[in-house]
Amino acid sequence: MKTPHKILVIIQRSIGDVFLSLKLISSLHEYYQPTEIDLLVNDDTLPLAKLLPHVNYIHTFSYKKRSDNRFKQEKELVKSIYRKYDLSINLTASDRSVLYALFASKKSISAVEQNNKKSWWKKILLTHYYYFDTTKHILLNNLETLNLLKIQHNNIQLSPDISEDSFDSIKNKLKAKGIKDFVIFHPSAQYKYKIYPKHLRDELLLYLSTLGIPILITGSNNEIDTEIKQELPSLSNVHDMIGETSLAEYFVLSEMALAYIGVDTLNMHIAAGQNKPIFAIFGPTNLSMWSPWSNVLKSSTNTNTPKQTYGNITIFQADMPCVACGEAGCANTGKSECLGKISPERIFHEIKDWYQNAKF
Fold first, then answer.
1. What's the pLDDT tens digit per position in 59-83?
2. Domains of the chain and CATH, by start
3. Cα 141 to Cα 163: distance, rounded to the nearest angstrom
């Protein structure tokens, strides 16, 4: 393949998928520079996409626009990318995203389903393809493109560089609160089926408050986070910072933290990219794809067990035969019974043992 001067990377999944594409984008930039790399992402992931380095332009897809006037958006988006690129790379196997890759360039690479009934036409039309493997971590799935292009790489999850303004802002906010060293506790997620129940969360926070180190509770201004903010207990050493940081500032806060405690969500993956000690509470989420990546070991886990530690990461799950089912809560109700079976005391003892033996 000739050196591409313009590359389009298509990531039509969640904000975590966009974050975990950083290694791919950086490797493409390093190998092919000078080249322009554009993205096509869902509009709800745009704030994260804007923080990624080496990105020239970002196209967005809106599900709201799709429901209002599907064909108008599709027409405009196809027109904006049609044959504008020397290479298109699609990280998801959906029909729409594969078609975008085919429209964007004569040279296209995409993930496809292993089910041939769904993927046969994609295999014919794409220049190269790889199977989207749900038994393999999302980082490794994303890096399959580099293998097809024969670009050497290491399996390291990166974190973007953040502006000095964001660093200064966080330093000032911490100084105003009289906080120096601290641990992050992140209780929220995009979906409620991932959230640790309130009564257990309150019990865990009560335990954590006895450590003698500030615990910063983080979150955004969305509906779920705001609800959690209103329910937080008033405890010494526990500081509510929900809604007080931008996404860029959160990256800084996470970089400065001694450790991450919380549910499986973007913030957990941010901490993993920064090589932080992680204490993650998992419900039904598939570990093989979404467990925190350990840069120390260059691996993750696909084993379900009530407690496990690998590298700098400790994961807690319920001791139930259905874990992890991979569903959006029990019978897709949005509520996960397994999260209610994870003991706050057990989580705290692991954190306490780490804190008392850590060398800061």
1. 999 988 877 877 899 999 999 999 9
2. 6-148 (3.40.50.2000), 166-357 (3.40.50.2000)
3. 29
